Amino acid sequence: MEYIRVRSIDDPHFAAMHRLMSTIFPPEEVLEFDLWKEPIEDPDIHVYVAVHQDNVVGATEYRYYPDMRVAMTDFTIIGVMGLGVGRFLFVQRAKDIQHLQHVSGTQSLGMFAEIYKPHTVSYLTFGNVLPMHPAVRREVLSHIGYKKLDFSYVHPSWDHEGKAVSELDLGFCPVDEDLLELPANLVTQFLKQYYSALPNKPKEWVEMISQLDTLSEIHLSAL
Questions:
Q1: Residue 103: how many CB atoms within 10 A of its CB?
Q2: How far apart are CA 213 and CA 187, in angstroms?
Q3: What's the confidence (pLDDT) of residue 111?
Q4: In whole angstroms, what is the distance from residue 9 CA to residue 39 CA?
Q5: To pair with 52 at 20 to 30 A between CA atoms, which of 32, 58, 81, 86?
Q6: Would you list the domain boundaries of the chain?
Q7: Percent of the chain at pLDDT above 90?
């Protein structure tokens, strides 16, 4: 299996990845094909596909913020069972993030991820790929160390319509597994930076940020 970076929407691997993404995730979570042009050319946004026998069988997108010393997994897609795609993406991504820490002279505190609440999205099929089912994914993420930030989380929809998406928790996988809290200002700084690409923010998101600004720490609890 090959781990190949995608840097342009003209790359055939991108078209295959976008098709796969569109079968897995609901429409409000998928940025339109043409709107990927600028983000995917950003050197700080890492988009990789897993290629097996010339077919895209998985993908992941992530970024590392050296100023905040945190990473973010935007998505992980497993398109085929039985090939070890999830483990392959996990290992390759970890190696790359370790490299990004090295070149920036920083040491990461951990990685954020948005994690579906299984009971809120039971109507979605997630491409009929069992490893992508929210209950399975949540258990796997818990197993590798992710915890839930204890606040009511919403995010702006990626379809640019400014809707509030509330079917997810914001998770964090701390390097120090004994870490019980994150500074609230770190969380808000991250969210403001991460969603700066979306101009239409729902009022629910604005209110959430305002509420977080009143806190000093945010507790991490089990998924």
A1: 9
A2: 9
A3: 98
A4: 10
A5: 32
A6: 2-221
A7: 85
Handedness of CA 93, 139, 172, 15 (dihedral sign): positive
Contact (CB, 8 A) for 88 and 3: yes
Report the predicted TM-score, pTM, of the whole model to 2 decimal places: 0.93
Question: How far is it, in rounded angstroms, from Cα 28 to Cα 172?
Answer: 22
Chosen CATH of 2-221 out of 3.40.50.970, 1.10.287.1700, 3.30.420.10, 3.40.630.30? 3.40.630.30
- Among candidate residues 99, 101, 17, 7, the one with its CA nearest the CA of residue 45: 7
The CA-atom distances, in angstroms, between 216 and each of 9, 183, 185 are 41, 6, 7
